[in-house]
Amino acid sequence: MTPTITADRGQEARTIHLIDPAGFDTWRGAQPPRIRAAVAAQRLTPKPGKTATLPGEQPDDWSVVTIVADTTTLTPWCLAHLPAQLPPDHYRLASGTPGAAKLGWATAQYRFTRYRKAEDDAPRILLSRDPAQIDEALRQAAATARVRDLVNTAAADLGPAELAAEAKALGEAHGATVTITAGRDLETGYPMIHAVGKAAAKGREPRLIELTWGNPAHPKVALVGKGVCFDSGGLDIKPSSGMRLMKKDMGGAAHALALAGLVMETHLPVRLHLLIPAVENSVSGDAFRPGDVLNSRKGLTVENTNTDAEGRLILGDALTRACEGAPELLIDFATLTGAARVALGPDLPATFVNDEALAADLIAAGTAEADPLWQMPLWDAYDDLLKSDIADMVNAPDGGMAGAVTAALFLRRFVTPGTAWAHLDTFAWRAAAKPGRANGGEAYGLRAAWRLLKDRYGQR
C-alpha cells in the first residue's frame, strides 16, 4: 500500500474539523453567516459520517467538517469515509491526533488492482502528531491488505504452489526458514492433507508449508492457516452458487501469513512456527470418496462422511505437526463452516478456546482493537457426535446440528492436551462495503490476534 499517513512537521495541509452530535448546534451557531450558509446548502446534519466543505478566506482556501460519534474517542472507522470524498492532498485534524482512526484512513485507500487498473489511486495523506504510532497503523493496514489481496486473487492464479511462493517470499524477507512438503511426499507423514489434495491437476499438488523464525530460546508460538485454494466440495460437489466464492477458502492461510509477517517485521521475541496445509479440493478419478477411512499424522483414523468437510482434515495433520514443537500458544485461522456464519454472520469469527485465560485475553484484545470476536463453546457433550462405527471418528456428523462446534471438537482431537489453543472460524469476505472496508476479501480477527501477541510477548 502507498503510505497514506505521515508525521506532521508543519507541512501545508487542509484542515479537518471534527464535530460530534452533542456539539453540532453549538459549533454551527458559532460560525459566520457564510459558513452557516455553506453548511446548510450541503445539508450537513449531526449524523456520524456526514461531511461538508467549508470555504476559506481565499478562493483556493477550504477545509472540511465531518461528524463523528464522539470527538473524545475516535474509532478506527470514524474517518474512513473521508478518503473517498476528498481530493488527493495532505490533511490534518484541527485539533488533537487521529489515534485509532489512522487505520481506517489507510485501509479506505486499499485497491485490488491485479485484474483492473484503479480509477483513482492517488493517496490522501493524513498528517499525525503521534509519529510513534504511525508505523504500527501502517503495518496493520498493510497486513490487512495482504489478506485482502490473497483472498481476492482468482483460484487460477493462486493455487498451492503460489501460496507456497508467498510464504517463501515472506520468509526470505525476514530471514526465516521455509520448508515445503509436497505431493506424494505427504502420503505417509501427512495422509489427510494428501488425501484431500491428491485429485488436483498437475502443478496444483497439495503441500504443507512450514516457516520457522526467531530465537529458539524464546516462547514458541504456532500459527496454522487453512489453505484450501479452491473448494469444489470434492465428490460431494457443491452447487454453483456454493462454489462461487470458494477462491476465498484459503482465507485462513492469508490471515496466518499476515500475522506471521507482523510478528517478524516487529521482531517480536517469540519462536514462530507457521504452518499452512495448502490444497485444492478437486474432482477426478483420484479424488477421495465418501466412506473412505483416512489415516492421520496423529494416528487417529477418520471415516470421511463428507468430502466437503475437507478443511478440518488438512488442519488435523497441521495441528498435529504444530503440537510436536510443544508451542506455548497455538492459534489457527480457518474459513471452516457455514454454520458459524449462520450463527454469527460475516463480521464475527466464531472463536473456540481451550484455555480460559487465553479466551479472556483474546476477546479483550478484539474489543480493544475494534476487531470483535465471539466465543463459542467446546461443548463436550457433542463430542459423541463424532463417533464412527468403523473408525476412531467421522469428519462430519449427520444432521448438521452445531456444525461449527463439532468442527472445532474435531480439531481439538489433534491438539495436544495442555497446549493453549484458539481456533478462529472466520469468513474472510465482506459482501457489502463499509467505510475503510471494501467488499471482497477481508481480515477478521487478525488485529485481535496481533494485539494478543503484542500484549503477551512484546514486553519480554
General description of the model:
With 460 residues, the protein is an alpha/beta fold. Helices cover 32% and strands 20% of the residues. The strands form 4 sheets. Strands 7, 8, 9, 10, 11, 14, 15, 16 and 18 form a 9-stranded mixed beta sheet that branches. Strands 1-6-5-2-4-3 form a 6-stranded mixed beta sheet. The protein has a 3-stranded mixed beta sheet with strand order 12-13-17. The chain starts with a strand and ends with a helix. Keywords: Aminopeptidase, Hydrolase, Manganese, Protease. This is Aminopeptidase. Pfam families: Peptidase_M17, Peptidase_M17_N_1. Belongs to the peptidase M17 family.
Number of strands: 20
Radius of gyration: 24 Å
Biggest β-sheet strands, sense, barrel: 9 strands, mixed
- Summed up, the helix count is 15
Overall number of structural domains? 2
Tell me the span between the first and last alpha carbons.
31 Å
The fraction of residues assigned to DSSP E strands is 15-25%
CATH topology type of the largest domain = Aminopeptidase
Uncertain segments are: none
CATH class of the largest domain: Alpha Beta
Can you summarize this structure?
With 460 residues, this protein is α/β, with parallel strands linked by helices. Helices cover 32% and strands 20% of the residues. Keywords: Aminopeptidase, Hydrolase, Manganese, Protease.
Keywords:
Aminopeptidase, nine-stranded mixed β-sheet, alpha/beta, Leucine Aminopeptidase, subunit E, domain 1, 20% strand, 32% helix, 460 residues
